[in-house]
């Protein structure tokens, strides 16, 4: 029995080691040092707060990528438009149940980075997007369909400025444009479904995120850039009154930021202040994306609903979050209108 308990203990320790290995083993922020009287210098005093700011960036960046990329490149549509003279315009909102770090509840230590669980809360997140498709080439005709049709795709995303009591989000511009293309593998007809391959590049404007704790410490994620590229394999079929679309693809998020923190703490009764930074950090995440659209086909436009899921990839943080891991799978939804002619 004793041997069995020892084996079980080793297995549990190994399992714990695997979980631990998934996170950062060391803080990405400068460690600083301790003086002769045991008082930390500026860098050491601010290292824990800087690490928390880095983890906030790691935690939020994938969520921003989901809000930006969404699912279908043009919601409710899976076939090429049919060449020159054909256009499609749509608006939609990509929304999901995200997690926002509660920076005001963070308690940075003045004695260097300390591994802990940072509080976060559920919050509906999303971004409004407008897009357009322009028919370029009808394709090569076959018996019941065309192949090789081409559409040009453009999009515009609105990014609001947010100011709350403890967090501010300030984009350099409120609007960012994207571009891409759709290639028709099969053009939809009465008996043939539409099948297409799309590529779309969408980016967020450079954004500053600044949060404050209740003790007056400042966590800054500056010059944040989120660049996404997405390809989709999409199939669609219209049944007069309603239409169905299903697709699968891959998203790639390329993200970068400058991380810093300034703290005003007390160490053994001695007030200390400090600041430190990570001038440049980056993250690349590749995720699988699956989605389905249902549209109600009205005389002038379509009303479309979409549901999808983005999953996969690894995001490492030093601390953990109460709302789950930064690379957890994310279910999202979209509602939109589309006008085509």
The end-to-end distance, rounded to whole angstroms, is 76 Å
Strand content: over 45%
Low-confidence stretches: 1-21
Helicity range of the residues?
10-25%
Main sheet strand line-up: 1-3-6-9-10-12-13-14-15-17
The computed structural class is mainly beta
Oligomeric state of the chains in view: single chain
Rounded radius of gyration (Å) = 24 Å
CATH topology: Lipocalin
Q: Helices and strands, in N-to-C order?
A: HHEEEEEEEEEEEEEEEEE
Query: What is the number of E strands?
Result: 17
How confident overall, as mean pLDDT? 88
CATH architecture: Beta Barrel
Q: In CATH's first tier, which class applies?
A: Mainly Beta
Number of domains: 1
Largest sheet: 10 strands, antiparallel, barrel
Question: Can you describe this structure?
Answer:
The protein is mostly beta strands and about 350 residues long. The protein has one domain (about 40-340): Lipocalin (Beta Barrel). It has helices at about 1-20, 40-70, and strands spanning about 85-100, 115-120, 120-135, 140, 145, 150-160, 160-165, 165-170, 175-185, 195-205, 205-210, 220-240, 240-265, 270-295, 300-310, 320, 330-340. The strands form 3 sheets. A 10-stranded antiparallel barrel has the order 1-3-6-9-10-12-13-14-15-17. A hairpin with a 4-residue loop joins strand 14 and strand 15. It is elongated and about 85 Å long. Residues about 1-20 have low confidence and may be disordered.
